[in-house]
Amino acid sequence: MNHSAEILFLPKNTNQKNNTFSIVIPSWNNLPYLKLCIESIRKNSTLSHQIIVFVNDGKDGTFEWAQSQTDIDVVYSSVNVGVCYALNACRKLLQTDYLLYMNDDMYVCPKWDTYLWEEIQLIGNKYFFISATAIEPVASSNCAIEYNFGTDITNFNEAALLEQFAQLPMNDWQGATWPPNIVHIDVWDLVGGYSIEFSPGMYSDPDFSMKLWQMGIRYFKGISKSRVYHFGSRSVKRVEKNPGYYTFINKWGMTSSTLSKFYLKRGEPFKGNLTEPNITFSLKIKNSLKRLLASFKRNNF
Question: Using CA atoms, how far apart are residues 83 and 270, in angstroms rounded to an integer?
């Protein structure tokens, strides 16, 4: 983190008792996509929500625009501090029991929030981690639906998306990890939010899932009916990436793919609470060797 960063907390309304979720959106000079994201939340949400935008740098006018919006609470950093610091800083302004992390290049589909809230009511406790389901022009994983409604904001076919999104086939899936995701604030606080050793953010998502696993969370679920359109990591393509792959192995003694495949069973049809994985001896040896390699790599970064 750049120690010259100046963090400003600029809440608009400290009495938001009627809101259901606190939607936290980190944004780094991505104003056209952020505007579209916020507009979709306003237009397609069934419930009312607190919206918090963390403005990284904001030299493209993001700060001024966010400040001019009466329904957006703002946290501002004078330099780009990345996703991990952004999410942790926004915790200070939360006015609901649920922190929902969303990317600024996402467009939420109608009733996206209703399906998440209904799931939370069915669970009946705070020990869960659930995600909405992304529709992407090119699916980034088996958790996403691949369908092209536009590769960027200039060719985005909003009308076609709104007409067709609900008919695209997908089942509820295991292994919630990526945003938009939601967690109870007590669980967020217990695991300490996002780990800043992964700043500016690569591999911070699986690390958060692993921290939840370590505290005993076993309900990781992707909700098929809750859908968002995701243009695809607009900021990640610009940022100088951290060595998160090796950081993860050094921290947990396994690769993130081991977590995804054997612990979270990410992308498989949802069957309820996850159970302890059966890690073979050969996989343990493989992870041990990769940890040795990761230690070597870490010393050379």
Answer: 28
Alpha-carbon distance of 236 to 229, in angstroms, equals 17
pLDDT in tens, 199-243: 887 889 999 999 999 999 999 999 999 999 999 865 555 566 777
DSSP state of 16: -
Q: Which residues lie below 8 Å from residue 67, measured CB to CB, with a gap of 6+?
A: 10, 74
Specify the pTM: 0.91
Q: CB–CB of 265/155 below 8 Å?
A: no
* Spatial contact of 63 and 80, defined as CB atoms under 8 Å apart: no
Q: Write out pLDDT tens, residues 237-259.
A: 556 677 788 889 889 999 999 99
User: Following CA atoms 89, 90, 93, 99 in sequence, which dihedral angle do they give, to the nearest 10 degrees?
Assistant: -130
- Straight-line distance from the first to the last Cα atom of the chain, in angstroms, rounded to the nearest whole number: 16
